[in-house]
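--- STAGE predict ---
source: upstream dedup step, 1 unique chain passed
mode: sequence only
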Amino acid sequence: MLTLFRRPQLLHTQILIGLAVGAAAGVFSTSCGAMHPSSFGSSTMSLTIGQVFLRMLFMVVVPLVFTSLALGVATLGDISRIGRIGGKALGFFLATTALAASLGLLLMNFIRPGGSLDPAVRNALLAQYTSQAAEKVSMATENGFGINTFINIVPRNPLSAAVNGDMLALIFFTLIFGVALTKIPP
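--- STAGE serialize ---
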């Protein structure tokens, strides 16, 4: 076991080790909180730690997307290569999206989350979140998918898109920025 940490590991091995350690720590902390909630801490403390962790993840998303896409396009060098690689990336995106949606629907129909809830709890949750759900549905039908979706991909202000988490607009700007970087002479 000690030899695992003495010799240098490849990056993908380090990532997999970190993933395994993080997953084990998450399972351990969750099981400790479920078995001994009074000794592990209050649920408010657990929620606070969870919210801070999620905010830290969201904090990293925008810089990570921007730098990885801009540098990826800039290192291609030749603009004509972007179309071929972009087509492959789009195909991969569509295939993984279809797989994820199919897997989600399959698991949802098989597991039926919420099916074992007490009817009183289910009705209370429905009453609590009905207005929010109706707001989201009306917003989705109002915006719809059409020409406005494609217009909204082009951001008026890229910083505003980054702040508001408009990832499509941010990705579009980043791709244009990366193409502009390829035009700068070395």
